[in-house]
Write a structure and sequence with these properties.
single chain, 304 residues, mainly beta, Immunoglobulin-like, 2 domains, 5-stranded mixed sheet, 4-stranded mixed sheet, 5 helices, 15 strands
Length: 304
């Protein structure tokens, strides 16, 4: 395979990125003896590989430098990054390791690369099914190709870089309730919000979306709307000031205003947070004629 040419005698094992297996496998763990404090992973090759003897020597040399893992861990051990001159992609050499006492098969997983300062310099989703079945307590060498469009910098990071699992994406998009909402809502209401969050269309990378879930027209002419603020970023967002326009089924603006949020409203990475905004009567227009069979809240074009 062409893969073998990537691994050289001059390569060295670098930083490890290790997680508890339950964070990747969704709570499923192998049953490793509690008496075992460390797991020394054994070199494992994909069953379709026909590895030349000289290349086995290179892989064994690298595998001997791997640190032991604790029970029930999955790990990515960085080796080297080479840029593809033709495409600009990064070929990232690493060991995928498992300290479970049973074999595992994985599916789609998001990975990212950080530099020595912890800055994310690349991120991409990979189909781990291509790695095949990973035996118990093993280390499998692999090349993860990060396409040029997945790179956040033009420079390959220097010593101290890591390749790691994106745990935020692994846990899936979740409901994020403020402490006051947590107290005020009963379990049925919380479950209904979780259902709504789960059934909404998937967000694009870094997308922030406002989804209306309730509106109340008050007798004094004011309008209260409850939104799900949906954060498709892998980092928290802080909202200090939020201009919002409400349009009805005809596309007519029926409320428009800017909300100052004090304290700052924090929406955690890859979550949706419900929040209620109240427009006083002087910020609404013809509410009695508005068609709320379908409505939306959005940031006005002039505010973007």
């Amino acid at each position: 395979m062409g893969l073998f040419s990537f691994f050289k005698k001059s390569d060295k094992v670098g930083k490890n990125s290790t997680v508890d297996s339950k964070d990747v496998l969704g709570g499923k763990k192998g049953q490793i003896s509690t008496q075992k404090q460390e797991v020394h992973t054994k070199l494992s090759f994909h069953p379709d590989w026909n590895v030349p003897q000289e290349q086995k020597y290179v892989f064994n040399f690298l595998a001997n430098d791997l640190e032991p893992l604790k029970p029930n861990q999955l790990s990515l051990a960085a080796i080297n990054i080479e840029e593809d001159d033709a495409t600009g992609a990064w070929n990232v050499k690493a060991f995928f390791r498992s300290s479970l006492n049973q074999s595992i098969e994985l599916k789609e997983i998001d990975l990212f690369i950080t530099d020595a300062e912890g800055n994310v310099v690349a991120k991409q989703s990979f189909d781990f099914a291509q790695l095949g079945t990973i035996p118990a307590e093993s280390a499998r060498p692999w090349v993860f190709t990060f396409k040029k469009e997945s790179l956040l910098t033009d420079e390959i990071p220097g010593e101290g870089w890591k390749i790691a699992f994106n745990l935020v994406s692994l846990r899936g998009h979740q409901l994020d309730l403020d402490a006051q909402w947590e107290k005020q809502l009963n379990e049925t209401q919380k479950e209904e919000l979780r259902r709504i969050v789960k059934e909404l269309p998937k967000l694009r990378d870094k997308e922030v979306n406002f989804t209306g879930i309730q509106h109340v027209k008050m007798d004094n002419g004011s309008l209260a709307i409850t939104l799900l603020i949906r954060n498709g970023n892998d980092r928290d967002i802080n909202l200090e000031q939020l201009p919002l326009e409400v349009v009805d089924a005809t596309g007519t603006a029926v409320a428009n205003g800017t909300f100052k949020l004090d304290p700052v409203l924090v929406v955690k990475a890859n979550t949706s947070k419900p929040w209620t905004f109240v427009y006083p009567a002087d910020l609404t227009t013809n509410l009695h004629e508005a068609d709320f069979t379908r409505w939306a809240a959005r940031v006005p074009q002039q505010a973007k």
